[in-house]
Design goal:
The chain is mainly beta. It has helices at about 130-135, 155-165, 220-225, and strands spanning about 30-35, 40, 45-50, 55-60, 65-70, 80, 90-95, 110, 115-125, 140-150, 175, 190-195, 205-210, 215-220, 260. It binds the ligand CCCSc1c(F)c(F)c(S(=O)(=O)NC)c(F)c1F and zinc ion.
């Protein structure tokens, strides 16, 4: 689990929010995806996503989001195909969300914001030995992003929602097993893809982004439980509600966003 329990101290300091936060950064994330500028690439393969619920291990509040972590010591939960040349191992997933349903997602589609965005983080186990090594490489990570919209209750998400009060404070961890995150994926196979970065420090430019076109629906009350989490640990005076944990959009520079669909 060394890979993803990689402890990151997120100073919620705006400095890394700004486009100039990574001097010389030419492939920063997130971005706005404009339909008219994205290019259908007929050579893009279908995504091959194989997750094993037995690799799910725990939930951790890292002071910026909550991470559902997976045992990434074998190739039991993997992502390949799409724009990827190698096989990537699932190491964790987390979300970004807002203080209200009007904001929350990191990426936007023609400027449309969603109330939250799921990130399934994978690392290139074909070429690198660990998440920490892969996070520093241009082809090291692949993140599948899924937009969340408010609608009917998501039955599969409820098990996760019920576990959140146990990780209310920063640095709290609770066992969480037998969860298959495939239930959080839309049935539609369409996606966009572009080369980008982490959206939290170290902001490394190591991510192949795969953004699902269709959102998944969750209920207002389910998303409200995300906002009951805290950025702060139990021993801090001021309890700060964990909301707006998204980064501001970054310049596209000379990148093309490709679509798997026309
Ligand atoms: C070295 C980070 C440890 S795990 C992690 C994370 F905690 C996170 F928030 C993001 S993100 O940039 O915010 N979303 C893609 C990641 F990519 C991650 F890999
Ligand atoms: Zn993320």
């Amino acid at each position: 689990l060394a890979g993803c329990s990689y402890k990151l101290r997120h100073q919620l300091h705006p400095v890394w929010q700004s486009p100039l936060s990574v001097p010389g950064g030419r492939r920063q994330s997130p971005i706005n995806i404009t339909l008219r500028d994205s290019l259908h690439d007929p050579h893009l393969k279908p995504l091959k996503i194989r997750y094993d619920s037995n690799t799910c291990t725990q939930i951790w509040n890292n002071g910026y989001s909550f991470l559902v972590e997976f045992d990434d010591s074998t190739d039991k939960s993997t992502l390949s195909g799409g724009p990827l040349l190698n096989q990537y191992r699932l190491c964790q997933f987390h979300f970004h969300w807002g203080e209200s349903n009007a904001v929350g997602s990191e990426h936007t589609i023609d400027g449309i914001l969603f109330p939250a965005e799921l990130h399934l983080v994978h690392w290139n186990a074909s070429k690198y030995k660990s998440f920490e090594e892969a996070v520093m490489e241009g082809d090291g990570l692949a993140v599948v992003a899924v937009f969340l919209k408010i609608g009917k209750r998501h039955e599969g998400l409820q098990k996760l929602v019920d576990a959140l009060p146990a990780v209310r404070h920063k640095d709290s961890v609770v066992e969480f097993t037998s969860f298959n995150p495939s239930c959080l994926l839309p049935t539609c196979l369409d996606y966009w893809t572009y080369s980008g970065s982490l959206t939290t420090p170290p902001l490394t430019e190591s991510v192949a982004w795969i953004i699902k076109k269709k959102p998944v629906e969750v209920s207002h009350d389910q998303l409200a439980v995300f906002r009951s989490l805290l950025f702060t640990s139990a021993d801090e005076e001021e309890q700060k509600s964990m909301v707006n944990n998204f980064r501001l959009q970054q310049p596209l520079m000379n990148r093309t966003v490709r679509s798997s669909f026309s």
